[in-house]
Amino acid sequence: MKKILLLAAAAGVILSGCVKNESASGVIASDAKISFETPAVGVSTRAVVGEIASAAAYPATEKFKVWGWYHKDNYTSFGDASNGWTIYMAEEDGSALEVTNPDGTAQTWAPSVDHYWPKNGKLTFAAYSPADATGTYTHTANGLQIAGFTVNEVGQQYDLLYSDRSYNRVSSENQYNGSNTTGNIYNGVDIVFHHALSSILFKVGTDVDYSQANITFKVKRITIRNVVNKGDFNETLTDQSAPIERNPTWTPSTEAGDKTDYVVFDDATGFEVPTDGTTYTEPAPANGTANDLMLLPQSFVGKDDAVVEIVYTMKTAASAEIEHTASFQLNSATNAETWEDNKRYTYKIIFGGLEKITFAPVVEDWVDVETPVNPGLN
Question: Which of 5, 70, 3 is nearest to 34 (CA)?
């Protein structure tokens, strides 16, 4: 009979087949199919466009890739030959196995070939998402490595995710024994993902209440200029029995052609800024585009050309609407001069009277940390 690997979600139970088989690795397999929970994602305070924030939000149409490794006893170290280490679930070339949802609606994922639990020994798993992410993906003792990842253009970006390893599994039963700390409620091998990119948001508001002063601000364009869009990733695991620590790092490209601009907001009509002194809002376009971005983690130290540019208008009782342009450099320590993975940076554009506007980035560990800055405005 045709063998299918099922990644269970709504019905994530241990699945059993009717035929025993021998896996491609030569390890004797049982007749119990391997199943996975709907992937969970590390703690997030909110979701933005394109971001996968929880198991409940993991789309049925999404694809991800999985590796599975066999070892006869408890995990010791990656590739430990004395522990019978071998690739158990992967493509023939050793790359991760693509998992898809057969019809895009059912809560079950299946690869092109199936795998069954070994009769003896244990399995360790790792995964990344989405399956069609750019770059070359490998997994070693140091965890996941990505070579040549490129951030897509605005409007086509996605949430690049990589998982913790799930160690010493012998069945599809959830390892939390029903008291599941990932937030999933179904059985199955737990896959817990982390965000590999930086989330970038913008909000606008004023520092004091101008609502009675007949002053109107409108944002027309927000652009991030000269940031790197290509790089390599290393999960950098300390591969030891306990504790196994993770120190993910990105190495951005140094090629001049791998810098680009991202237009976050563009609307000729303009978005009217709330002027009550307390409300900060993400600009919503009337006839343009507004984008929550997921960009490559990188340092801006020594990079004066990496800036955020804001085009806005101001109108008072004594003047018509006048257009202005303001910008701030990303290489200032007060402007969060480094974007880190798994962090959200919310830049608050603060309109502060007639002389200047200021900027205040808020960094979230998907937990707010406010850092005010005061660049000048021409």
Answer: 5
